[in-house]
Design goal:
With about 475 residues, the chain is α+β, with helices and mostly antiparallel strands. It contains 11 helices and 16 strands. It has 4 domains: about 10-125, Nucleotidyltransferase, domain 5 (2-Layer Sandwich), CATH 3.30.420; about 140-190, no CATH class; about 195-295, no CATH class; about 310-465, no CATH class.
Length: about 475
């Protein structure tokens, strides 16, 4: 889908010629039929003569019957609803509707619909999957690298992201509210609203008076309200908390919050002793400047908050459409092999009048502490909501560790300086067998049937996780 913006309706013919030339040159395709309403912009003598010369068949609807162009009319409504939502969410003025429309069409071309199956319009046209890794919220605030000021001025300005520039390889369209104009920029930084500064923290036995190398900028205490006196020529008093300088471009360093342990050290209620291994990474050795650059404690917690953004828990249908489907299939086969090896079921003929519980796959990408993919994991769970309490079951139980026990183990490890590691048991819950009076039938998982699914079902011999 291409979109062209017109100042007046008489520009429709010129835009049609541009689109026709693009199809012919870039994709070696010709327009065989043009369907439209009876608007005057389509019925001009110039437009009609061009269609006849090109051999394009014209199809017109009867007046007052927009439903005969139902697909186009519905698409127009879909686009305008996306535009309305983007303008409302961003709080930007309505005269940016054209920028919002262009971005809505960009997203529409790169998302699949039920009509064309499991491929996107972009894949059908170009034969490859689109790259959506750099998609951001339309209208979000961004920092744009700027070198137009003096050496003492900031090297970035805040603008609003309008999407990608179609005529530039790596250009972003940026709206400047103070100038009410849109420009194309390259060096752009997203997601900077939640930056939190952390100060330089002195360790026990170290003086706050630290020799400094000559620098163009001096750290300023955040909490002071008195005028700043000129520093001594030999020594400069370094404050407890300093503001890190903003990187001019590129990804930059993540600004981190101090942990409770570090805060205790700063307030003087904790000591380091001789066990430097208890300190956060980056505070075990080195100068004071090394602390700010190397504190990477929170890196190991980042992997727990990116599941939804990175697609770490897709549905079975979504996983089949992804390029990493072979890894998901391998994980599913491993899960089925583990269930079969544990004697979880036996296959029997479908009993008449019995409730047969359906199932589904729960897929999850597990990452290590550094945020790298460790393994693909698949788990077959029963759809427990199809069972009736008092008829199909009487109680449920999940063998999990209590949080209090987990905290006790961590406290003992921290007290004694023990390293803490984690590992996973495959199918650990398959240790409980069903009783003689507990009869549960389960459908064979779709795509992995061993017998006719309509005739044969599984009779569970051991417990299986269920989804309530």
């Amino acid at each position: 889908m291409n979109v062209y913006f017109l100042t007046t309706k008489d520009e429709a013919f010129k835009s049609y010629q541009i689109y026709e030339a693009w199809l012919s040159t870039q994709h070696n395709a010709r327009i065989k039929c043009l369907r439209s309403d009876r608007g005057g912009e389509y019925l001009s003598d110039e437009f009609s003569a061009h269609l006849k010369k090109a051999g394009t068949v014209r199809k017109l609807t009867v007046h007052d019957t927009p439903e005969h162009n139902g697909v186009a009319e519905r698409l127009n409504r879909t686009i305008i609803e996306k535009v309305r939502a983007m303008l409302y969410d961003s709080g930007l003025p309505k005269f940016l509707w054209a920028e919002a429309t262009a971005h809505a069409v960009y997203l529409k071309n790169r998302t699949w619909t039920r009509t064309i199956g499991e491929m996107t319009p972009y894949e059908i046209l170009y034969g490859r999957k689109p790259n959506l890794s750099n998609i951001q919220s339309w209208g979000c605030k961004v920092r744009v690298h700027d070198t137009g000021g003096s050496k003492l001025d900031g090297h970035s300005k805040i603008g609003r992201w309008m999407g990608f520039d179609s005529e530039t390889r790596d250009g972003y369209r940026i709206y400047w509210p103070e100038r009410r104009m849109v420009t194309v920029e390259r060096s752009v930084k997203f997601n900077f609203d939640n930056e939190v500064s952390v100060g330089v923290l002195p360790l026990e036995g170290e003086s706050k008076h630290v020799e400094q190398q000559p620098n163009t900028t001096q750290p300023i205490p955040e909490t002071t309200e008195t005028p700043i006196e000129a520093p001594d020529a030999e020594k400069i008093v370094e404050p407890d908390i300093v503001e890190p300088t903003e990187p001019t471009e590129g990804r930059g360093r993540r600004i981190r919050k101090e942990s409770k342990y570090v805060r205790m050290l700063r307030e003087g209620t904790g000591v380091t002793g001789e066990k430097l291994s208890l300190l956060p990474k980056g505070m075990q050795s080195g100068s004071m400047s090394t602390v700010v650059a190397d504190v990477a404690v929170e890196d190991y917690a980042m992997a727990t908050v990116v599941e939804s953004a990175e697609g770490l828990m897709p549905t079975y249908e979504e996983a089949r459409r992804r390029p990493d489907w072979p890894k998901w299939d391998e994980a599913i086969q491993k899960e089925l092999g583990s269930l079969k090896k544990s004697g979880t079921w036996e296959i029997v003929e479908r009993p008449k009048g019995a409730n047969v519980v359906d199932n589904r796959w729960v897929l999850h990408i597990k990452k290590n502490a550094a945020g790298e993919i460790e393994k693909y994991k698949a788990r077959l769970v029963a759809k427990g909501f199809t069972q009736i309490y008092g008829i199909d079951y009487y109680e449920t139980y999940a063998p999990v560790t209590k949080l209090a026990s987990f905290r006790l183990l961590l406290a003992l490890a921290a007290r004694n300086g023990w390293p803490v590691d984690t590992f996973d048991f495959d199918s650990a819950y398959l240790n409980s067998s069903l009783g003689e009076n507990e009869t549960i039938y389960l459908e064979q998982p779709i795509g992995y049937e061993t017998e006719d699914r309509k005739r044969w079902v599984w009779k569970l011999l051991k417990t299986l996780l269920y989804m309530g």
